[in-house]
Amino acid sequence: MGSKSLTFRVTRQKPELVRPAKSTPRECKLLSDIDDQEGLRFHVPVIQFYRSDDDRLHSRRDPVKVIREAIAKALVFYYPFAGRLRECAGRKLVVDCTGEGVMFIEADAEVTLEQFGDELQPPFPCLEELLYDVPESAGVLHCPVLLIQVTRLRCGGFIFAVRLNHTIMSDGTGLVQFMNAVGEIARGASAPSVLPVWQRERLNARDSPRVTCIHHEYDEVADTKGTIIPLDDMVHRSFFFGPAEVSALRKSIPLDISRKCSTFEVLTACLWRCRTIALQPEPNEEVRMICVVNARSKFDPPLPQGYYGNGFAFPVALTTAGELCKRPLGYALELVTKAKGDVTEDYMKSVADLMVIKGRPHFTVVRTYVVSDVTRIGFNEVDFGWGRPEFGGPAKGGVGAIPGLLSFYITVTNKNGEKGIVVPICLPGFAMDRFVRELEKLLSNNHHSIIDRSTFVRSAL
Predict the structure, then answer these.
(1) Catalytic, out of 36, 43, 166, 216
(2) How far is the CA of 184 from the CAs of 57, 180, 382, 383, 410, in angstroms?
(3) In this structure, are residues 51 and 132 in contact, taking their beta carbons and an 8 Å threshold?
(4) How far is 144 from 78, CA to CA, in rounded Å?
(5) pTM for the full model?
(6) pLDDT in tens, 135-178
(7) How far apart are alpha carbons 300 and 293 in whole angstroms?
(8) What is d(CA 67, CA 108) in angstroms, rounded to the nearest whole number?
(9) What is the pLDDT of residue 81?
């Protein structure tokens, strides 16, 4: 059965709260001014698929029991995750370290890993069953910071799915750090090899806040034509980019420019341009591409290895739709490259100051496309004792307040053993068709079709 049409039954136990295994400090901890911005007040779903244990001596291990116990022990070190977010004066968020715990669901699914198909990639069938949205659990304030569901499969494998409150749990780097801690303890360690570091004050606004950089990512833009994403006919689709696809895209760019650019930059420029053409904004309208840039190494000294707060920026490439669509791809590429290079320590301090001065605004969403590269942070390496996952990473694209705004770049290996990047895209049905046609044009030099290497699901939201 193909994964696109796959349906199955999931039996869930009653959700429970997993508390730290030992007593933890009862205190309030301030988030940083980078954590505490409106654009991060949402939840992100992540999913990991694991095969059964081939070692017969350990084949009777129950992943639910092992992982539940490891979470409780990991929370002794990461005790803020067992607390709840509160809002203080000036919309400032704090973690009330109550020790109440994270929400945990034990489940069993009448399906095997093989039934999901030869290539595991978003969007996944029955995701809402594999990561159940417990009623009244998805708020940003006064709710569990993490919701974790471990689902046993008929084949002996299992699925680990987690929904994180982006505001406190941080970026993907921080989430993977916590998941690795759970994995190490599940494999017998008494403590994580990388101990968590709070130090959120390092990303706070200065005593005299002052915006010293240009931040078009927080421009106030009126959506005079109504929302650009009609929510009643959204299509979720994933596209695979291996070495052949990336090589074909580079052929559309002058050699002297292509040599200086990373795969991320080339891919982002291509997708931004194709997506803009597909949505057909007016030629004189401004369009933005926001790339999520890890800024941990930009500080002097760099943020410590165990830092698990949000440590990234939202630099923006800005132009008009007409210029982006009619000019060569190299134009978009230069804009993307410059945006990435804008992030410095001063840039991060300027963002923190802007948050305080302007009341923690949301980044601009009108005619904006956001991309986040999670290929290097280790989702595909988290080991709970059953080896590396067959797939590990964000469960879908288009998360956040506005569907279709955000795409992740995720590491995958396809059925031919070829390593590459899969990109979930979420667009209205009419725009998705145009998007595919534009992408096909760019890939035509390589004489193969992107359609055969992607999956899609249409959903009414």
Answers:
(1) 166
(2) 20, 6, 9, 8, 23
(3) no
(4) 14
(5) 0.91
(6) 988 888 889 999 999 999 999 999 999 998 766 656 889 999 99
(7) 17
(8) 15
(9) 95
